[in-house]
Design goal:
Length: 166
């Protein structure tokens, strides 16, 4: 279950060189289930996963992808379990097998999120799952020890960038 190890650490603490206000990746980061517009969420691309942006640049494990809060949605566990019957939902859920195979007491240590993948972006994971934007990528991520940063980008930045990749 290598993909479980890979994707369970998809959301990782990343420290910025400048002092910024940070908050944890938790329910407070997602009022009404949607990420806060004034925040940016930093993801570490796990080993074995590749992200290709609109320009054709490929980022592999160890690269950083920054996603604006308005493009992230926290999915509640009962909803996720109900959607297990939906083929389209399951085809976009990168690590569904690990999530549904996990004991209930471990599930609370993880969050399930939906990332709006911009047009022209492709995410390829192990096991042959590929998500092409525009579309949704469903991920189980570690809900503890993660950081959400204040978005310092000018208005309109994310409309043209989609996601920022470093």
């Amino acid at each position: 279950m290598k993909i479980f190890r890979i994707l369970s650490v998809a959301l990782v603490l990343l420290f910025s060189a400048v002092a910024v206000q940070a908050q944890g990746f938790n329910n407070e980061s997602f009022p009404n289930g949607i990420g806060k517009k004034e925040m940016v969420y930093k993801f570490l691309v796990p080993e074995g996963v590749t992200v290709t942006n609109q320009k054709g640049e490929v980022k592999k494990g160890g690269s950083i992808v920054m996603v604006p809060g308005s493009r992230i949605k926290l999915l509640e566990s009962p909803y996720v379990k109900e959607m297990q019957k939906d083929e389209a939902f399951m085809s976009s859920f990168m690590n569904a097998e690990q999530y549904f195979g996990m004991p209930a007491e471990k599930v609370r240590d993880f969050a399930v999120i939906s990332l709006m993948v911009p047009e022209g972006v492709t995410i390829e994971g192990e096991g042959g799952k590929t998500i092409k934007g525009p579309g949704d990528l469903i991920l189980m991520v570690s809900s503890g020890g993660s950081e959400v940063m204040e978005d310092k980008q000018p208005a309109g930045y994310w409309d043209t960038m989609g996601w920022e990749m470093r």
